[in-house]
Amino acid sequence: MGKTGGFLEYGRKDHGVRVPGERLSDFDEFVLRLPEEEQKIQAARCMNCGTAFCQTGMLIDGKVSGCPLHNLIPEWNDLVFRGKWKEAYDRLSLTNPFPEFTGRVCPAPCEAGCNLGLGDDPTSIKDDELQIIEKAFDNGFVKPMNNLSRSGRRVLVIGGGPAGLAAAHSLNRLGNKVTVYERSDRMGGLLMYGIPNMKLDKSVISRRLDLMAAEGVEFVCNKSVTTIKEAQEILSQYDAVVLCCGSTDPRNLNVQGREASEVYYAVDYLGRNTKSLLDSKLTDGKAVSAKGKHVVIVGGGDTGTDCAATATRQGALSVTQIEIMDCPPSDRAANNPWPQWPMTYKQDYGQQEVDYKFGADPRRWLTTVTKINKDDSGKVISVDIVKVKWEKTDKGFAPVPVKGSEETIPCGLLLIAMGFTGPQTPVMDAFSVERNSRGLPAADKLYHTSNPKVFTAGDQRRGQSLVVWAIAEGVECAYEVNLCLEKQKQQSAKID
Amino acid sequence: MNQTKEHGLYREAFEHDACGIGALAQIKGIKSHQMLQDALSVLVNMEHRGGKGLESNTGDGAGILFQIPHRFFRQEAQRQGQLLPDNGEYGVAMLFLPKSLEKTEAAKKVFEKVCRENGMSVLFWRAVPVDPAGLGFTAKETMPTIFQAFILRPGSVSKGDAFERKLFVTRRLIEKRIKNDKTFTGEIFYVSSMSCRTIVYKGMLLASQLSSFYLDLRQAKVETSLALVHSRFSTNTNPSWERAHPNRYMIHNGEINTLRGNVNWMTARESNLYSSVLGEDLEKVLPIMDQSGSDSAILDNVLEFLTMSGRKLTRSAMMLLPEPWVHNTDISEKLRAFLAYQSTLMEPWDGPAAIAFTNGIQTGAILDRNGLRPARYYVTKDDRLILASEVGVLDIDPSQILQKGSLEPGKMIVVDPVQGRILWNDIIKEGLANELPYRQWIDEELVLMDQLEEPSAQVSHTLENEEHDAKSELNHLQQMRKFGYVFEDLTEVIRPMAESGSEPLASMGTDVPLAVLSSRPKALFEYFKQLFAQVTNPPIDALRESIVTSTQVYLGSRGNILEDSKKNCHLLRLKTPLLDRGEFRRIQGIRVRGFKAQVFRIVFDRDADPEKGLEEALDKLNEKVLAAVKNQTNIIILSDRIQSAGDVPIPSLLAAASVHHHLIRSGVRTRGDIIVEAGDVRGVHHAAMLMGYGTTAIYPYLAHTAIEEMAKKGDISCPAEEGIKKYNKALVHGIVKVMSKMGISTIHSYAGSQNFEALGIDLSVIDKYFTNTVSRIGGLKIADIQREAVAKFDMALQAEKENIPPALESGGETQYRTGKEEHLYDPMSIYLLQQSVRSGNYKTFKEYSSRFNEGKIRATIRSCFDFVNGKSIPVDEVEPASEIVKRFKTGAMSYGSISKEAHETLAIAMNRLGGKSNTGEGGEDVSRERLESNGDSKLSAIKQVASGRFGVTSRYLNSACEIQIKIAQGAKPGEGGHLPGRKVYPWIAKTRQSTPGVGLISPPPHHDIYSIEDLAELIYDLKNANDRAVITVKLVAEAGVGTVAAGVAKGGADLILISGHDGGTGAAPGSSIRNTGLPLELGLAETQQTLMRNGLRSRVRIEADGKLMTGKDVAVACLLGAEEFGFATAPLISLGCLMMRACEKDTCPVGIATQNETLRAKFKGDPSHVVNFMMFVAEEMREYMARLGFRTVEEMCGHVEFLRQDRENVNWKARTIDLSSVLAMPEKPYEGIIAGSEIMHFAPEMASHCDLNSTLDKSLFLPLCDHVIENLTAVHFSADVSNVDRALGTILGSRITRKYPDGLPEELICIDLRGSGGQSLGAFLPKGIRLTLTGDANDYFGKGLSGGQLAVITPAESGFIASENIIIGNVAFYGATSGKAFINGFAGQRFAVRNSGANLVVEGMGNHGCEYMTGGIVVCLGPVGVNFACGMSGGTAYVYDPNDMLGSRLNHELVDMTQLALHDYSLLKLMLEEHIDITRSPLGIRLMYSFDKEKTHFKKVIPFGYRKIKVLAAEQEKNGISHAEAISIAFKMVTRDNQGKGNE
Fold it and tell me: At B859, phi and psi to the nearest 5?
């Protein structure tokens, strides 16, 4: 439980970072872990709350508060405080198969829900988590599980992102023989190509993949399923199929001049950079480069931030982030109380880097792009932007342009980081999976689809969301699949 | 017997009684009519100790036992044409016979027939002349036909004992014959007495009715040399003539807490008995006990049986109520050996008891080991012993008194007319101790653990092998899973115990589902709730009064209790029932003559028949054990070790209870004892339950393994061995605590006492395995228990199959964990509630309440209820919410447990609403009497009076609208509290009238409530102290709370609060929070049903609390019978509480349960939050009222027919319960007979009126002091008093306090009293009044003294030496806060208990003096009893100790004994001078005369913590710092020093 009253003695101390001046010259991870003793002190701040909001993962007005994986945070915080790294790792593993991912990329709704955060800085749960798993790797606690008992059943997971990997991991541990199909050349989905290397070093992913492979999971890259025939073949070979193909249809920027070149979806831009980095240490020239360009990013979210950080590293002339929402307050607004997700102003690493390099936060709030201007060659040269204000209309609140605030800013590379609209359809069609009005698989039961042998989890099921949700869904889906298969087995045994 | 049928939740076995007792004897055996008259006077003068039922003219029972009045009977016989032979040649049976003539004649025929069969003849019958004119309706209705039968002594039987024995055997045969004769089913047939020596006249009478009812008692020829009288106070008004005392041999004031176990053991012994005097007749008298009788009647059965079997009367009494010997330094070596031997024969019948007994020749009395009942006596110059619950019950000229005394705990006194003298305790006991070579027997026969050899290599090897499979860590984990361990079992139960040696504390109550409602598999232990003592008997403080506590147990084959022999004590004695591996192995491998150990495995196969598998396994086990026991096995080891893959452990509790009861039923239980080698035992409740169901020793091997693992991994700070030792110690300590909640002092008698109620176990299981345990809502059958055991097993397998990491799952039982055990206050509930009250948005509140009202969370009994639709009405016809909230209260949370901010916010909110907030146990700052500038009031309307009496002053009581006597609290009923010094901040100390930094102890019992009549007395005292306040008694739901409530209603309370088991608390052991007490619904329904059944409901208001959260909860409570409602957790949540459950740590991050100023600054609560919550709840309540068609709460109250059990939408376990007993419509037996008896709610016209107008205060004191109060002129007068004048001066004091809150100038009112003062003389007396009593006084003298002055002076004409005789009763100056007193004589037990500021001089005192004292000065000029200064954390005592006795009498835990310093001497001298001045004390004068010589014999007793603070503060003050600031600095210094010393 940490130390009784520890929070009264110690303040919060976050992990260190490499200074922007240093880290901007490479794509290596920028987070530095705290020394062990300091991390223990951070864990000592945990209050072991009788009602620990940090591990609930409850939805308030659609936003999550607390960990969707229900990580046993107070329990392993205590173990960290006591220096019991092995036990801490075991407890963490009870709920989270991939703490090395969440420990790096999760926005930490656990900390948003941390009871200490009500009147103080929350416990540094995310750092504690990362420290536990990395110590576990360092000390050799993480070992493939040998001699897994096998049920003889086979399950195919389509999609090698966090949801698919989590489902595969759990299904494998439950004794199923698991194969994972991934359509790109590397496993990991958005973990691999959506998130840049400085935030999540790709060796972290391969380290995990190696472990899973050693436990018997089979990975197949460059493999997608788009036809009914393929699907039927699969269904005849596997006892169940789990679709974890994500929600990968990007939201487009529908303005005049969209057809201009040097306009990319953020994920494509980020992915090509990472692939080039991994394939050739950026020497193959296959990355889209921002070097010497004015970069405009539409969208102020995490992906936009990743774009800003990547573009800055590539040597952009300037970086601007266009955000249609207003700048949030620095403290929680009255209608945004704890333990709700705090809608407050924060500078993420990408913005810090831009700020460092160009002297200002890249974000322009309450702004939208109205037109893309291109040169004769069809390349983007500038964008028209305008300030908006949010007004109540008959369709609810909507942005209305502010007259006289029009402006044209130079732009040599336009990146669209406006999120995703939903999952792609071919794979669902191939398996005859019905869809609801949001384009998501329709089903009566959680993780099921209209096809009784086909299950689904992650962004594909719930729409675009956090990595931690993807993992949580993958795990839960795995248990559901296993339960269904067990039941089937019992039923068929009865019939026999 | 009058058999009442079971209906609803009421059970006849729940009934309790208490009383006033009196025993009179002429030492030379001279008979007189005067003796009888005196006895009757004694009885009448104790009428206030008796109870009245519904009617003022129906009593609970009164009676008298005396010698057969031969002269009178001879005359009566002659009238019937009969000649009686000489005295002793005939016996007389006093009989209650059926009402109808026909049945009476039939009964007489049976009687005569059985007499004839036994060679005796009935000489004649005599109809006993009675005059029922003055009796109340109920008494008349049930009045039996009363006859006497005169029986001749047959020539073959010799006179005296043999004849008496013959009469006894015959009576037993008659009783059995009648019982088995269907003619008499439902008819009364009761033999009050049947003896050639004594006769009993008794009935359902008031004390004053006895002699007017029985005309015989007025006859001058009726003479006796001895008499026992008894005035009964029963907790009910159930008509009963036979339950009146005296019984045939004794009268009893008290309660046998271990009754169930004693009865079971006694029954078990029956097959093992041999008596040379009874011979073949022994069979005829069995069974020994009539189990339908009260505890007193059963005790009488046993006492009679032992005596009739040839044991001496004194020896028999001592067997039942032995004096403590294990830790007792005050007894001789011989006596110790005798008592040790004695303890191998029979376990004590434990509980508060004062017993007076007689066989018609000797008359005596004995007191229980705790001394929890008063027994005062006079010896007069004309050779009489007069012993009674009070002094002054008989008017005796002071000059005639030779000696005044008080029976001490565990002691005995007997009048022996044959020797013509009083046999004092030591003479009797030393005599018995010298009869046989007990020391030698013990030395030769008794086997001790360290005498056992290590097991031989071969045995050891087998044992090793058995453990073999448990070698690897993973295997341990898997075992733990199979036994249902969760992570918290390791971290929150086992580890803390292994580290600290005590059970860890928790807070905020419990809000998880009852085991039978939980969808998770639970340990069988969790389906049982610990019972605890409340009102009818006190819980005890085993920690501080450890002198009476014993943890030792015996193993082996028991001997014959009727005759002494060496082999009786051939047993193995264990110091405690908890074993470690070494000890267990040594017992398992025992190779001593007369011992044979055998292991029986308690597992069943996973694939066994799911319906019968477990049951068959248990049947097989039972038979195997029985066969082995018949084959000399006498150490039965039940082991649940898993040895093969399919082994599912049988819950150890089930196996042990099964074997225990099977052996009882088979009549061989005393031939061997049970040891359990259990994997499922983790916590205190588990161990206590095993003991409670007949286990003698426990080896919790898996918990020990867990500790070894922890030690290996460095998870605990000590080596494994030490950890295991500490863990075992914590369990033993915990068992002691559990049994002390029930008022039981010895594990020996706790074993098998079954002090549990089952909650969710079907009767089929209870009857077979837990025979006679209360279980009222049905629940799991044996197949269901099997299903749960298998579920745990399967979950373990599943974990294995799922290859999950090597760690135990969390259970989420205390700390909420998503997906684990459900909690009412989960994050979403807390979030929604807080948002709703902060925004004032009722819609959000409905979102919150719908989670419970619509059954999303089903954790409580009420969640299983649905409404039966009535004729709905529009909501606006329902009374407004603003009216309903006036019935709302907030819970008793002390200032100290919560912050000033939180405490005051609650008060303001409730005052705004017109509801009531509660001070809790901690006093209240007088500054809160002032209104705020905006009109808000911070004054708590309810003032609580709890056992610690902190800050309970006259002023405090007079500022109350309601005074609440807290008998128990839901989270930890039966326990006291301890506020550690570091939490006694200066501002807390101020309101509690104590010293900052010095720990404060709230004792488990109120030391002025050991029984129901004591509670009636406290109610009376408080009514005197403030006659405008409602007096409330707070009880906690448990089996029998309804009958307790009935008693409380009869005791004059205005309101009874029934608390559920789940209430919050600042700190309590986890097992108390979870495993003690019952859900509100059961307690409330039982209370409503029982009060209705007794016609008492309309006399009192009923309040309910226990995690009430929504309007539905209130509606359900109202329909079950409540009209007022309390909330505690929900208002705290409204103020920001996050259910951190860290209250005990002073780290509450929202500033509620903390005194830390940094954290208090974070408090964000506002009165409007609480106001909103209350209004929302009331609003929602209105919706339900409208739906059911009720316009007012009053209309709705008790209409239980609007509730039904919802069986559809619940899980499989919840479907097994049957709530029809909770929903039973109450019976209304007095409807149409007694007006108002059928009303289901409080009716003002039915309110019980406490007659204060007849008090001396009203009739004399107030008129004479009127002008004083107006004009502040002095007054001095005198008055005669007697023991019926109770709480003298209290009303006068209350009038003064109201006008002058700080009191009057000293001695403005001086009143001289003469005679024997009643109980509670001078209670809460404020400054300015002096009462000087010449004579003596009873218990509770100077209770709550609030600045006034008291003195007791021995009358000059008395023949005895004042300083050697008891002059005031027990528990004097309890909770005194200031003032002074001078006692010219000895005081009883517990003098100055919880004194916090009064200065007192006394000339000697009984045991436990200055207990829990926190302030003030006590000067004792004579000896003190044992356990002096226990729990004393403040104040100073000066004791005159010329013989250096004090050191051995002192409880050294908290205090030092030192020499006096100069300033002490001057203080002492000053007090001595005043003492002499007022009392003229000869002893005082003598000491003062040679003060310089004598002063060196004084010793100073001062708590070291207290001294430290004082010294530090004094140093600061020397530097010119103000007193308040100096104290504050000293506090900080002390608490800083104590940092890091761990938890309390």
Answer: -120, -20
Q: What is the nearest CA distance from B1353 to chain A, expressed in angstroms? A: 55
Mean of the per-residue pLDDT values of chain A:
95
What is the rounded distance in angstroms from the CA atom of residue A414 to the CA atom of residue A380? Answer: 7
A255: pLDDT strictly greater than 70: yes
Has residue B2 got a pLDDT over 70? Answer: no
User: Which uninterrupted H or E stretch holds B1512?
Assistant: helix B1504-1518
Q: Locate the chain B residue with the closest alpha carbon to A141.
A: B805
Give bridge partners of residue B566 from the DSSP assignment. none
Domain annotation for chain A: domains and CATH numbers:
6-138 (1.10.1060.10), 154-249+421-495 (3.50.50.60), 252-418 (3.50.50.60)
- Measured in degrees and rounded to the nearest 5, phi and psi for residue B1112 equal -65, -40
Q: Name which of A56, A149, A337 is nearest B827 (Cβ-Cβ).
A: A56
What three-state secondary structure class fits A242?
strand
Residues of chain B neighbouring A53 (CB-CB closer than 8 A): 827, 1138
Percent of chain B with pLDDT over 70: 97
Q: What are phi and psi of A169, to 5 degrees?
A: -60, -50
What letter would DSSP give residue B550?
Answer: B
Asked if B572 and B590 count as a contact pair (C-beta separation under 8 A), the reply is yes
Nearest-Cα distance to chain A for B756, in Å, is: 28
Give the relative orientation of helices B1290-1299 and B1262-1271 as an angle to the nearest 10 degrees: 20
CB of B814 within 8 Å of any CB in chain A? yes
Report the C-alpha gap between B1082 and B1094 in whole angstroms.
18
pLDDT tens string B918-952: 999 889 999 999 999 999 999 999 999 999 999 99
B818, B835, B1140, B1143: best mutation site toward chain A, by most A Cβ within 10 Å? B818
**Which parts of B1213-1313 fold into alpha helices (H)?**
1256, 1262-1271, 1290-1299
pTM exceeds 0.90? yes
Q: For the segment B529-582, what is each residue's pLDDT rounded down to a tens digit? A: 999 999 888 898 888 888 888 999 999 999 999 999 999 999 999 999 999 999
Residue of chain A with shortest Cα separation from B1157: A8
Backbone angles phi, psi at B775, to 5 degrees: -150, 115
The pLDDT confidence band at residue B3, using thresholds 50, 70 and 90, is very low
Q: Which residue, B390, B728, B685, B747, is CA-closest to B554?
A: B747
What's the Rg (C-alpha) of chain B?
32
Cβ separation B809–A94 shorter than 8 A: yes
CA distance B1499 to B557: 50
Average pLDDT across chain B, whole number = 92
To probe the interface with A, which of B815, B828, B982, B1169 has the most A CB atoms within 10 Å? Answer: B815
Residue B1199 is predicted with a pLDDT of 97
The complex's ipTM works out to 0.95
A51–B1138 C-beta distance less than 8 A: yes
- Which candidate from B807, B818, B1141 shows the least CB-CB separation from A94? B807
Instruction: Assess contact for B69 and B37: CB atoms under 8 A.
Output: no
pLDDT: which is higher, B1268 or A253? A253
What is the model's pLDDT at position B1538? 59
The DSSP line for B1176-1225 is HHHHHHHHHHHHHT-SSHHHHTT-GGGEEE--TTS-TTGGGB-GGGTTPP
* B1148 labelled catalytic: no
pLDDT for res B55? 74
Chain A interface includes B801 (CB < 8 A)? yes
The pLDDT tens digits for B1013-1052 are: 899 999 999 999 999 999 999 999 999 999 999 999 989 9
CA dist A483 to A478, B454, B798, Å?
9, 52, 12
